[in-house]
Amino acid sequence: MGQPAALAFKAKTMINFFRRIRQSVLDENKFSKYLLYALGEILLVVIGILIALSINNWNEGRIAKIQEKSVLSNLNREFLQNKKALIETIHANEEAFKSGLELMQLMGKDKSQIVTVNIDSLIFQTVEFVKFTPSENSLSDLLQSGRLQLLENETVKDLLYEWSRSRALATEDWDTFDSKIEDDLLPYLTKHYAMKDVDMYGNLNWKSKSDLKIDKLKIFEDIEFENLMDDTLYRLLRYNNSLKKALLLIDNILNESGSK
Predict the structure, then answer these.
(1) Per-block average pLDDT, block size 10, for the chain (260 residues)?
(2) Handedness of CA 153, 157, 160, 166 (dihedral sign)
(3) Structurally, how many domains does the chain consist of?
(4) 18, 41 in Cβ contact below 8 A?
(5) Cβ atoms of 232 and 187 closer than 8 Å
(6) Which residue segment(s) compose the domain that 48 sits in?
(7) Left (φ > 0), alpha (ψ -120 to 50) or beta: where does 258 sit?
(8) Do 51 and 73 fall into the same domain?
(9) What angle do CA 257, 167, 169 make, to 5 degrees?
(10) Which of 27, 43, 58, 253 has the smallest CB count inside 10 Å?
(11) 179 and 54, same structural domain?
């Protein structure tokens, strides 16, 4: 027998008990017993209210448990997707970083050594970094609706708040890195390198290199290019480290919320 049914059975039993007392009192017509009956009626009402409150509290608790389970399930699904996307982003940025390191190692080297390397491809791969854009539909809905309080696990709630802070810091690191590329590195390459040759490896997929005469290898003798690459790689590394911290946080969230 479930809890609501058991409470209802007890209430019905007590009601029948007091009905029998009332009938006996009325039959004997005694004031003292009638007074006792009146007090019993009051007690019965109080007990009925308490039972009703118990049933209501039990039902609300049951509904809260169902809602909490649904919330955790949605969060798990969302963070599992984000984990996969984040791992792919970190890997892509690590590859871009490696290509940038290869370019740095060619700075100041003889042209005979530089020409043995596919510089166009290295430059393309260096600027093929990726921004992590997670799905946060479930989390945003949870925070905006105030349903975060449905979660009884305080650790999960703390981790979710920490995730929001981590995301904000990673976004700041991305913005400083992206601005370096857009405002400094790419404008430099536009002036000192044949970008058509680089774009042969991208979506433009040019079938031939630029016909314009330009000594592309001069950039490896230019301290400005070395400094730009140094700063670019520093910012890319910082951004990727932020993403790795976010990845650890995702693992903690999944562990605490019941999924790995």
Answers:
(1) 54 59 57 64 75 69 69 87 96 96 96 94 93 88 72 84 92 95 95 95 91 94 97 96 96 79
(2) negative
(3) 2
(4) yes
(5) no
(6) 3-60
(7) left
(8) no
(9) 140
(10) 27
(11) no
Q: Which of 43, 60, 77 lies at the terminal end of a domain, its last residue?
A: 60
- Angle (CA) 17-20-26 rounded to 5° is 140
Q: Is there a single domain that holds both residue 128 and residue 210?
A: yes
pLDDT value of position 187: 96
Residues 6+ positions from 204 with CB-CB distance below 8 Å: 196
Alpha-helical runs (H) found in 106-128: 111-114, 119-126
Rounded to whole angstroms, the Cα distance separating 132 from 170 reads 9
Distance (Å, whole) CA 85 – CA 152: 28
- Judge if 25 and 49 occupy the same domain: yes
